[in-house]
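Supplementary Methods S3. Input chains for the assembly prediction are listed below.
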Amino acid sequence: MPVQGKVSVPVIKRLPKYYRYLSEMKQKGLTKVSSSELARMMGTTASQVRQDFNCFGGFGQQGIGYNVEVLLYELGHLLFREEPLDAILIGTGRLGTAISSYLTNDARGYRLVAAFDIRPDQVGRQLFGVCIQHVSNLRAFCQQHHPQVAVLCVPKSSAKDLAPTLVDMGIRGFWNFSHYDLSVAYPNVVVENVHLGDSLMSLSYQVNHLG
Amino acid sequence: MPVQGKVSVPVIKRLPKYYRYLSEMKQKGLTKVSSSELARMMGTTASQVRQDFNCFGGFGQQGIGYNVEVLLYELGHLLFREEPLDAILIGTGRLGTAISSYLTNDARGYRLVAAFDIRPDQVGRQLFGVCIQHVSNLRAFCQQHHPQVAVLCVPKSSAKDLAPTLVDMGIRGFWNFSHYDLSVAYPNVVVENVHLGDSLMSLSYQVNHLG
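Predicted structure tokens for the full assembly:
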């Protein structure tokens, strides 16, 4: 499947949604879907769907609709590699634990290979098959095992302190739950921010100002 | 503080970030900030900052910069009410537990007043000061206590099944970790989606296709 040049971020952000809807269709036994049916589910237009898919070579013949299974296979091939990405967790508090449970048990495409914390009561504890290490082992671990993804569940200041080491040690993608804005300092790494606090504040604003 | 008509979603989404940056400035003892300094931190333009603030009456006099403490107070007043919003949690698994810990201990403006699950091993357990109830009590609880916000940490199908009851019972805001797209069926409620799975898929795509 040829990727046509650089795909824009909005298109990339829609790929998981396509993948989810198509997985549901396959589960329901549907075999064909048109761009307008997909558009309706996605809350977009048929033309947008076709444009999105054209970034990857088109996925089908115009006029006869898409084959659900083929489309799902192609999208899966774009989103995931055969080998999962090796991920490390930094910060093993309640949020870090929940997040790595999600990554380990519910998500596809990742393998948790190590977890780090600074607190003595965390170090040595088992977490989803890995033993929590002290953060002072981070550099040595990365040098030896070359993980590709770091999950940051630490406060902003710790994230800022650790970022140079992580980037230097070859981490290419960050799943960032901290408030440290990594993409400003490191424009060449991939950052997915999940800002729970911002999300709650914006919810609160909107509920408080409902007409 | 007069809110000038309907404020657009992108502006609302930036308010928490302003609030966070200003809180840090206050902690550092800074008392004044210009729109261009704020813009630099936010990764936007000074004109955008002034436009954003103009939606709420301006927050200060042009040319002399903003008073950090006043600005923080005004933004806090917009984002939060004196009385926290009463929130209920649906789904008390690992993610639901982590999320309600965050809501209870780390976030401002919310009070967890009840938690619901369907699993017998969850019902009756204590969670941050509330006793987990069976989901069959949901309607009665809402009728009596009128919570405003629901946190959905359940699968898509359960979210879809429960949504009519929740909206009918007066829930006005959803913090939605499920993949059920509430805002399509209920355009008049406020929904903040946190799609962990989509975020991981888009991270994986980007790491796998790094140049």
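Chain B touches chain A through 55 residues (CB under 8 Å). The first strand of chain B starts at residue 32 and ends at 33.
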